[in-house]
Automatic annotation (TrEMBL), chain A:
The lineage of its organism: Bacteria, Pseudomonadati, Pseudomonadota, Alphaproteobacteria, Hyphomicrobiales. It is a multi-pass membrane protein. The keyword Secreted does not apply. The chain crosses the membrane at residues 42-69, 90-111, 126-148, 160-183, 195-215, 246-263, 305-324, 336-357, 363-386, 662-680. This is Cytochrome b. It comes from Bradyrhizobium algeriense.
UniProtKB/TrEMBL annotation, chain B:
Binds 1 [2Fe-2S] cluster per subunit. This is Ubiquinol-cytochrome c reductase iron-sulfur subunit. Component of the ubiquinol-cytochrome c reductase complex (complex III or cytochrome b-c1 complex), which is a respiratory chain that generates an electrochemical potential coupled to ATP synthesis. InterPro entries: Rieske_2Fe-2S (IPR017941), Rieske_2Fe-2S_sf (IPR036922), Rieske_Fe-S_prot (IPR014349), Rieske_Fe-S_prot_C (IPR005805), TAT_signal (IPR006311), TAT_signal_bac_arc (IPR019546), Ubiq_cytC_Rdtase_Fe-S_su_TAT (IPR019470), Ubiquinol_cyt_c_Rdtase_Fe-S-su (IPR006317). Its cofactor is [2Fe-2S] cluster. The main subunits of complex b-c1 are: cytochrome b, cytochrome c1 and the Rieske protein. It catalyses: a quinol + 2 Fe(III)-[cytochrome c](out) = a quinone + 2 Fe(II)-[cytochrome c](out) + 2 H(+)(out). It is a single-pass membrane protein. Pfam families: Rieske (PF00355), UCR_Fe-S_N (PF10399). CDD domains: Rieske_cytochrome_bc1 (cd03470). SUPFAM superfamilies: ISP domain (SSF50022). Its EC number is 7.1.1.8. The chain crosses the membrane at residues 15-36.
Amino acid sequence: MSGPSDFQPTNPALKWIERRLPIMGLMHSSFVAYPTPRNLNYWWTFGAILSMMLGVQILTGVILAMHYTPHADLAFKSVELIVRDVNYGWLLRNIHASGASMFFFAVYIHMFRGLYYGSYKEPREVLWILGVIIYLLMMATGFMGYVLPWGQMSFWGATVITNLFSAVPYFGESIVTLLWGGYAVGNPTLNRFFSLHYLLPFVIAGVVVLHIWALHVAGQNNPAGVEAKTEKDTVPFTPYATIKDAFGVSCFMLFFAWFIFYMPNYLGDAENYIPANPAVTPAHIVPEWYYLPFYAILRSIPNKLAGVIAMFGAIIILAFLPWLDSAKTRSSKYRPLAKQFFWMFVVVCIGLGYLGAQPPEGIYVIVGRILTIAYFAYFLILLPLLSRIEKPRPVPNSIADDVLAKSGGKAASMVSSVIALMVAGGLLLGGAESARAAEGSTKPPAQNWSFAGPVGKFDRGALQRGLKVYKEVCSSCHGLSFVAFRNLAESGGPGYSVAQAQAFASEYKVKDGPNDQGDMFERPGRPADYFPSPFPNEQAARAANGGAFPPDLSLITKARSYGRGFPMFLIDFFTQYQEQGPDYVAALLQGYEDKPPAGVTLPEGSYYNKYFPGHAIKMPKPLNDGQVTFDDGSPATVAQYSKDVTTFLMWAAEPHMEARKALGLQVFVFLILLTVLLYFTKKKVWANAH
Amino acid sequence: MTTASSADHPTRRDFLFVATGAVAAVGAAATVWPLVSQMNPDASTIAAGAPIEVDLTPIAEGQDIKVFWRGKPIYISHRTKKQIDEARKVPVASLPDPQSDEARVKPGHDQWLVVVGICTHLGCIPIAHEGAYDGFFCPCHGSVYDTSGRIRQGPAPSNLAVPPYTFVSDTKIQIG
Ligand code: FES
């Protein structure tokens, strides 16, 4: 895209095409011969990382759409079926779900890099504005994608975000109704969100092409912030930038794979494993972590309309950055004041993110207001002021000079900023997490689970015993509707043979029909059948249980969680602790106390449980010593029952967990090898450039 | 700056490039596997394709029924004596897809013809009891099958397929 290319293919067939459509020349001049500043650091590889992420999201998204059903009654189940039944469905879903977070993570680094090095300044204003447009589109796409699994957070996130538009004077209500396609968020909303979620990534891809085009016209900015003048200042894109980007991408994939294979639910919300229920709002509506700073701004303003304006304004203001900061010096490296304020701004953003996840009360509101003011002051007061009063240090004459002047201290500062970023990110996520803490209840003790950790496996004995406990005790009130009898014979499960699973199934009566006479009839279960639910519908279940609805247990170990708080949450990322759900379920089963503590009165028909949020649970103590007899001589105690049934339910919630961890190990060995090789190849290639 | 083919350590350098390229290629190839494999039938579809049992008692002589197995229509015909004789009279060698009627039914159950009701031409569903041979007639492009489900006329290249099935009892078959 830098003028007519001198690229000429030698093959006559290619020549023929090239004369009519010079696409090879375009590719050659854009991605091979294109001169790239030779002093770019690794922050510049995030452009390539983002391109890769867009590709990954489109590819996995198109595939998931082949298996997903955009209908309010079927969406939640279809996502579960993808994860359980589609070949590698769990992998594709994990990639797509954590991929969204990775995409935002990379885009934030990319944006902060642009901010620090002044990449928005003349002549790159349009390039920067296109970037802001991409970011807005990403937010819309990410939001609508989060709605599709139709869990509790999906539904209530959709409700809250669409209601933002009700703040518009006069037309607010009509706009919201228009968005919903109904009187509330419902099936029409889900359908149109699916359609748009599929469309927008391609719009993003289109704007990305413009973004890259603009980049190739203006040329890349660089850490020194001086334009490339001579040949000495640049290196050809291939092999230099290509190999460096490849190495950056490979490092990023290692980070990404950690989430995909080992922490797939780390960034998600347990609430979203509960199917959408228009009658119950979760205690804390927390958006995905990447929206938190803006959510905090929204909540800081006590007026509805002003809050919405501030929230959107916080994003739109970025588009005006090239004119707010009119300093001639681009890179903050040479702007001692701007540099310090940049880092303060980063802290403000992270602080807002943390607050976005906290309950909107007390000190959080006050700090939120201060940080909101700081956020806007940075753009509206500080940057315009700095560009007038700051005395920048002298910039190098050329990029080549900058490369020569480079010292070892650079790497150290880079490492420290990476560490600072990670800690800050952890704080942000920790905030998101702690908002989920079940209030007013004791934290469940962490237990030793055989399935924990990177090589954890289910204990087959525990799974079989747990199945027995479920069948003899839990199944009288709780369904297990996503688990089929055939699953009992699948690898990574309780280890039954196909014949055993069949025999187990045939003990159940399953409703089938209609037959030739048009009647429904009962027949013995088959392996393809799912565990029948004890009640035909929610109303019947409530009527039989004093108004309480015994939840389906298929996903219970993933749908329950409790806050670990900072810094445990950060440590959990490295130790791969993600057994909050099992810990909670096992603790709940053992947490009954015959007499509530003094001063606590329980509502009629409730029981006291130490670990249940609010302590008053409608489920009577389900397990008692000696209730179930095990053939293998395991103790017939409540502790043993709880542990076994929880293990079984963990397997029920994620039947492919062992496959996930096993594949993860292979992928890690491969990626580490590839990254090391790319590192040395990169060193070899660049050895010529210095 | 030297050129890409520096002569200092030609072998080591080449080895590194080749190794990196090879590992990346292996990774790319391995990535394709799950992306393609997901298109195959999922576990619930496979489980739903388990064998089915069909009770033959309600099917009177000369009648036929259609059942579905793995999403395919299966014709079960209770053939008359006349139909069986017609099928067996034809010299096998004269058929486009030579196969004897005996080979297409289960021994001792000659009256029962069980075939997949999908035309071997391009997949339309032939109509039973139609066409010149009192067998099946495909309305799409005019293929005609006889009382044994064998192709006699038209563009279809082969006989109607016989699905795997067994007689559980004299009046019950299991398909699959
Ligand atoms: S599909 Fe039957 S004749 Fe063509």
